[in-house]
Design goal:
Blueprint: E1 2-10, E2 13-17, E3 23-28, E4 40-46, E5 49-55, E6 61-65, E7 70-75, E8 79-85, H1 92-105, E9 108-114, H2 121-133, E10 137-140, H3 147-158, E11 162-166, H4 173-180, H5 184-195, E12 206-209, E13 218-221, E14 227-228, H6 266-272, H7 278-292
Parallel strand pairs: 3-5, 8-9, 8-11, 9-10, 11-13
Antiparallel strand pairs: 1-2, 1-4, 2-3, 4-5, 6-7, 6-14, 12-13
Helix pairs in contact: 1-7
């Protein structure tokens, strides 16, 4: 039995890479299991293709949310780079959901603030101030106008790690991938041919090596979704996944305080003292209510 790395997935069809970086189209055995990019898979050859018999245990797993349900999309990550910018201005709600999903999975996150050469960058910096204050690293980039500087900043941060790059449309994610992986377009074409899906894989999660050896690190690009799946996060755990709210937990009058309406809430008292940012508090309420809503 061989063990390989899942570098692309489309339905039950996978591209699995062996340690010598040879790639093979494989099919997943069994209807209940689901493989995602970053999985380690046990597979057996069947002619020119292969069958994945089982998956190795995962260190972590991230979910995305579509209209109907949460769905796993990437596994065994070391870091997440959330790319945002001021033009178009990023959504704090989307950023917070990314950070909560990462915290739930135990994955380190940094924010990449791109387009710092444009006028709206200063407003974006102000909006990111609460995140810097809570200890989230912010990397400032100008991927189009100062690419060498951006690559020099990113390369040591990415080295030796598997990093998922996320961000809304227009943030510069494709530019980042192409700066860090000059052969990215060729790799996309190779995967498209292997899966027989043509251009459809431009909306699929993909794995890119940053160098000839694993020590150089790898990027995972997942462009095809708008929201994180948080429905696996119990609503009572949400505040603990937000670093600016977590320090006040355990200080409320009631042990099972939801921090929404109960008297004697330590978090709401901190909000009134100006110790919790009002936009972060609004987003907490929005997500808490969403997670608490009846599931039909």
């Amino acid at each position: 039995m061989n063990i390989g790395l899942v570098v692309a997935a489309h339905g039950r069809h996978l591209v699995v890479e062996s340690p010598d970086r040879q790639r093979r189209l494989c099919h997943l055995r069994g209807k209940k299991s689901e493989a995602v990019v970053g999985d380690r898979a046990r597979w057996a050859a069947t002619g020119d293709e292969g069958v994945v018999e089982a998956l190795e245990p995962r260190r972590n797993l991230l979910y995305r949310q579509d209209e109907w349900r949460s769905k796993a999309f990437a596994a065994n990550l070391d870091r997440i780079l959330m790319l945002v910018c001021g033009e178009p201005m990023f959504s704090e709600s989307q950023l917070t959901r990314a950070l909560v999903a990462a915290a739930q999975a135990g994955i380190e996150v940094a924010i990449g603030l791109n387009k710092v050469d444009l006028p709206q960058a200063e407003l974006a910096r102000q909006r990111l101030a609460p995140y810097r204050k809570m200890g989230v690293e912010v990397l400032e980039l100008a991927l189009k106008t100062r690419p060498d500087e951006a690559v020099a900043l990113l390369a040591p941060w990415l080295a030796g790690r598997t990093t998922l790059v996320l961000g809304p449309s227009g943030a510069g994610k494709s530019t980042l991938i192409n700066r860090m992986v000059p052969a990215a377009d060729a790799q996309v074409g190779e995967i498209s041919m292997a899966l027989g899906t043509g251009r459809h894989t431009t909306t699929s999660t993909r794995w890119y090596w940053l160098g000839e050896t694993a020590e150089a690190g790898a990027l995972i690009d997942s462009p095809g979704f708008q929201a994180f799946g948080l429905h696996h996060v119990p609503p009572e755990d949400l505040a603990a996944r937000m670093p600016d709210l977590a320090p006040y937990l355990g200080q409320c009058r009631f042990y099972n305080c939801t921090h929404r309406h109960e008297p004697g809430c330590a978090l709401r008292a901190a909000l009134e003292r100006g110790e919790i940012d009002s936009s972060r508090w609004r987003i907490y309420g929005e997500i808490y209510d969403e997670l608490s809503a009846p599931k039909y």
